[in-house]
Amino acid sequence: MDLSLRGALWIIAAGVITAGLYYLREPLTQFALALLLWFTIDILAKALRKYLPRLPRRLDLPLAILIVLSVTALFVYIVASNIGQMAGNVRDYQGRLNQLISDAYASFGLGPAPTVNDLLARVDPGRIVTQIAQEVRHIISQTIFILIYLGFLFPSIAMMRRKLVLIFPNPKQRDQVRAVIESISDSMEGYLWVQTVSSLIITGLTYVTLLAVGLDNALFWSFLIFFLNYIPTIGSIVAVVLPTAFALVQFPTLAHVAAVAIGVGAWQFIIGNFLQPRMTGDSLNLSAVIVLLALAIWGAIWGIAGAFLAAPLTVMLMIILAQFPSTRWIAILLSADGKPVRENKLVNKSQPA
After folding, report:
1. Maximum Cα interatomic distance, the chain, rounded to a whole number of Å
2. Which of 108, 141, 184, 215 is deepest in the core (most CB within 10 A)?
3. How far is CA 68 from CA 61, 103, 261, in A?
4. Strand, helix or coil for residue 157
5. Cα–Cα dist 4/300, whole Å
6. Sequence-separated (6 or more) residues with CB below 8 Å from residue 317
7. Contacts of 69 (CB under 8 A, 6+ apart)
8. Closest CA to 286 of 323, 327, 314, 247
9. Nearest to 349 by CA among 180, 212, 233, 99
10. Dihedral through CA 119, CA 122, CA 123, CA 126, nearest 10?
11. Residue 181: burial class (beta carbons within 10 Å; 0-12, 13-18, 19+)
């Protein structure tokens, strides 16, 4: 096939796939989040079997589901209660907010600065309540669909081995497909373990730091930082900016603000640049530029959900593309060292002993 024609076909195919991902983003993000949740539950069930050998086999999966859903519910409760508490404390921060607004207007030469009361007077309470109700309804709807997908994933994945036999009667092809699936599963397991453990360490150290400085709602900010660390690169930056901005409102002196920024940023830098790379190994062999590009693309297509899923989705794509000679060059470009994730293991697994 002519090179120019092949290039045109690649461009058309990429455009069609991107359009499909965008227009079907609602069901696809729900399914992708359900799949990620299934990976998390499966990894936790394996850990329970490994570290609690006396636990009955039939209880490991239900216990893992209970733990994951309980942690999710706890996060939702803490976020909801703390947001309400911070909204109720706006009056307590009124003086500091007025000062910050006045300084900002003076710095940019915008004229007389409005006060907090002036800004609140312009707000339409009915419109805000309507928007909040719509967002809450949307989140509840999304959650219900994710749980429905999750419920159907367990029996479907359990039947996958039998379906592979029917789809690929050739044993060699079947072994190769199994090797790809196992490689994706191993990479997701390693990625989730590393992100969860490193996020827990950062969260614990950050919580102690914020308590020592005296920042209000320290538990809320720590929980928020835990989940932000699942977003590559940008998540760590946002995790520093948000509590620092809140400290700017709460504290009258810049010393406390600097303490929050340095304290939170130091743990992000130390864990993210020294501990996490040692833990990651070959579970996430993506180029740093590709990680940022994937974050931008998936975020533009799927929003916040795409930002959370950017790294694992790109790893899956790289592993799959590495299996075909015509697309292997793309997998090499995506990888950090020119060797797609676990490629050698895939070759060894696909060959009969």
Report:
1. 79
2. 215
3. 11, 45, 31
4. helix
5. 29
6. 334
7. none
8. 314
9. 180
10. 160
11. middle
pTM: 0.77
In angstroms, how far is the first alpha carbon of the chain from the final one?
A: 37
**pLDDT at residue 345, rounded to an integer:** 46
Tens-digit pLDDT profile for residues 295-336: 888 888 888 888 888 888 888 888 888 877 777 888 888 887
Q: Kindly report the CA angle at 154 between 148 and 158, in degrees rounded to 5?
A: 150
- The answer to whether the CB of 202 falls within 8 A of the CB of 226 is yes
Q: Work out the number of other CB atoms within 10 angstroms of the CB of residue 246.
A: 20
The two three-digit tokens of residue 102, written as one number:
């006045």
Name residue 34's amino acid.
A
Mean pLDDT of 90-116: 73
* Helix (H), strand (E) at residue 308: helix 288-321
